[in-house]
């Protein structure tokens, strides 16, 4: 099997080049070609000695996950479905805004944490994504969008290619300015691969994104939050969704292991290292479940000692979810209680509805339940 170079950060590539008897500066050159120029074909790496290019052609590939399809929503939101050989694949979403372009990246196929309102959670866990599959989502989006002239035109489909087209006119040098690990999966449950991929996103030899522009979203894996603070303290979003343990135990089951008191303490510890001086708390609004004024008042108490911002997300429905999003009046009352207490609150706009790119819809319309069944069987046999 040829080595996929997208699996390496720069140190890893240098070490692998060492095994080939090649110098570190050669690894740096190739790293630039791959991540900065978006070149997958070694023959195009013109300043690399021909003998090395031939060696690479025999022993290596630059292989992002294969694109199943790419589609653009009426509001410019772009969604890719990648075929990773299992289940329905994984999805990546690009959200263009005036001053930024945000890429929402997946970290796992499915998710084991089974939050009750999440279609990925309902799908069950299939497997962790490799480094190449995680960074490959950015590679495809970044280089694909860079060379695509009509990228904000509605309903513009691109052909099925996984190698960017370098013949086309360049629109922008930097279509992706921000990355959020908010696609499928729990990023901190795939810790090593996610941290390596984050390192490549931040590396000036690759994408050079600042730590503030890269956000990891977690449902609250406390020990891994501490490790992330040590290893790669990017911006942190925490999926709170409930203001007390009784409710959070039900809708975010990982809370039974790491209850709110421990989670809040971990948030405070994280901020000692973090590039932003606040945590973003995500709060999915579920009608009749967590949207009462009393919940808002409890939240104010809960986060009293954590510098934070709130992001209220209206629930995105999916078939048989059993949940509904609150009425806008209910959301307004909830938001104003938080704001009156001095908290900064944003309400997430729903983007890309027409292509199922909105939050929690990333598992696709027909969830493959086999992962879930396998997990159950596993539980029963151990
Ligand atoms: N596993 C991580 C990151 C992926 S989910 C986490 O849970 O934080 C990204 C965000 O979308 C999380 O805040 C998640 O709770 C939210 N989400 C999941 N399902 C949703 C739905 N149906 N509607 C709205 N938001 C949802
Ligand atoms: Fe997993 Fe996040 Fe969905 Fe919970 S909300 S099941 S942690 S992807």
Short overview:
This protein has 382 residues and is α/β, with parallel strands linked by helices. The chain is 35% helix and 18% strand.
What does this structure look like?
With 382 residues, the chain is α/β, with parallel strands linked by helices. It contains twelve helices and 14 strands. It has helices spanning 10-19, 24-36, 50-59, 119-123, 131-146, 191-202, 222-231, 245-251, 260-273, 293-302, 328-340, 370-381; strands spanning 3-4, 60-61, 66-72, 78-83, 90-96, 101-104, 108-110, 125-128, 178-181, 214-218, 235-239, 279-285, 308-314, 344-347. The strands form three sheets. A ten-stranded mixed beta sheet has the order 3-4-5-6-9-10-11-12-13-14. The chain has a two-stranded parallel sheet with strand order 1-2. Helix 1 (10-19) crosses helix 2, helix 7 (222-231) runs parallel beside helix 9 (260-273) and helix 10 packs parallel to helix 11 (328-340). The chain is elongated and about 70 Å long. The protein starts with a strand and ends with a helix. Mean pLDDT is 88; it is low at 151-171 and 363-382. Residues 111, 115, 117-118, 182, 186, 217-219, 239, 282, 284, 313, 315-316, 359-360 line the site of S-adenosyl-L-homocysteine.
């Amino acid at each position: 099997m040829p080595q996929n170079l997208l699996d390496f950060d720069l140190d890893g590539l240098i070490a692998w080049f060492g095994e080939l008897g090649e110098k570190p500066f050669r690894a740096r050159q190739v790293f630039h070609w791959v991540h900065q120029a978006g070149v997958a074909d070694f023959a195009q790496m013109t300043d690399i000695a021909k003998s090395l290019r031939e060696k690479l052609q025999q022993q290596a590939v630059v292989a992002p996950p294969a694109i199943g399809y790419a589609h653009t929503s009426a509001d410019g939101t772009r969604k890719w479905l990648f075929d990773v050989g299992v289940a329905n694949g994984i999805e990546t979403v690009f959200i263009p805004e005036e001053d930024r372009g945000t890429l929402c990246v997946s970290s796992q196929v499915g998710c084991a944490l089974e939050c009750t309102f999440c279609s990925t959670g309902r799908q069950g866990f299939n497997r962790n994504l490799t480094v190449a599959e995680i960074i490959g989502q950015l590679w495809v989006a970044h280089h694909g969008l860079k060379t695509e002239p009509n990228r904000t035109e509605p309903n513009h489909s691109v052909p099925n290619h996984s190698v960017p087209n370098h013949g086309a006119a360049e629109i922008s040098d930097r279509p992706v300015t921000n990355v959020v690990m908010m696609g499928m999966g729990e990023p901190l449950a795939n810790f090593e691969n996610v941290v390596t991929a984050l390192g490549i996103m931040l590396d000036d030899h690759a994408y050079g994104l600042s730590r503030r522009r890269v956000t990891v979203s977690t449902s609250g894996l406390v020990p891994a939050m501490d490790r992330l603070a040590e290893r790669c303290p990017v911006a942190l979003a925490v999926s709170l969704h409930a203001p007390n343990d009784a409710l959070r135990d039900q809708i975010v089951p990982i809370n039974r292991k790491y209850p709110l008191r421990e989670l809040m303490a971990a948030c405070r510890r994280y901020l000692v290292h973090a590039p932003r001086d606040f945590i973003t708390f995500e709060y999915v609004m579920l009608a009749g479940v967590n949207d009462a004024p009393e919940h808002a008042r409890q939240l104010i108490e809960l986060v009293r000692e954590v510098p934070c911002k709130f992001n209220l997300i209206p629930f995105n429905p999916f078939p048989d979810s059993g949940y509904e999003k609150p009425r806008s009046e209910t959301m307004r009352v909830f938001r104003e209680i938080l704001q009156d207490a001095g908290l900064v609150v944003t309400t997430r706009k729903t983007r890309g509805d027409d292509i199922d790119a909105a939050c929690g819809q990333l598992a696709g319309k027909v969830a493959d339940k086999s992962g879930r069944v396998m997990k159950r069987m596993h539980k029963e046999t151990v």
